Amino acid sequence: MGSDYVWGQNSIRDVLLQMITIGLNIADKSFKEELHGIFSQLLEIHLNNKEDLIYLDFIIKKEEEYYKIIGNNIVSALWLSGIIPKDSEAVMKYNECHVNDKIYTFNKKRKKLIISKNE
Predict the structure, then answer these.
(1) Reported pTM
(2) Which of 6, 45, 71, 84 is 20 to 30 A off residue 52, Cα-Cα?
(3) pLDDT per residue over 56-105, tens digit each?
(4) 60 domain-assigned
């Protein structure tokens, strides 16, 4: 179950929604390079280390009535969710990110971000 969309909370989602609204097929493979560039520009504003952009890796699938945006690693999955970890290298190394009372891990086989409570 997803959450309600809130404009301005995640600039990547905002850009994707704008593109979909004007009729672009964001899953078109020829569009991926342009999307990568747009995401990179958006992320550079928030990253402590610009070299972390090497972790930006994603795919977009068009399902019947929606698009599925999948991060291919934990850092990309976090970024696509609107979470910018302070130390991307450590997050990649340990496949874990702590934010407030939550722990984010990444199932590499299923390409899914898993959220659990930090107890």
Answers:
(1) 0.88
(2) 6
(3) 999 999 988 889 999 999 999 999 999 999 999 999 999 999 999 999 99
(4) yes
Q: How far apart are CA 12 and CA 108, in angstroms?
A: 22
Cβ neighbors of 23 (< 8 A, separation 6 or more) are none
Measured CA to CA, the distance from residue 61 to residue 113 in angstroms comes to 17
Q: Among all chains, which residue has been given the structure tokens 């899914």?
A: 112
Tokens found for residue 35 = 């999307």
DSSP 8-state assignment for residue 55: G
For residue 66, give its domain range.
11-117
* Among 54, 49, 48, CA closest to 76: 54
Going by DSSP bridges, is the β-strand pair 102-107/112-117 parallel, antiparallel, or unpaired?
antiparallel
Give me the number of domains the chain comprises.
1
HSE toward the beta carbon, residue 8, CA cutoff 13 A: 0
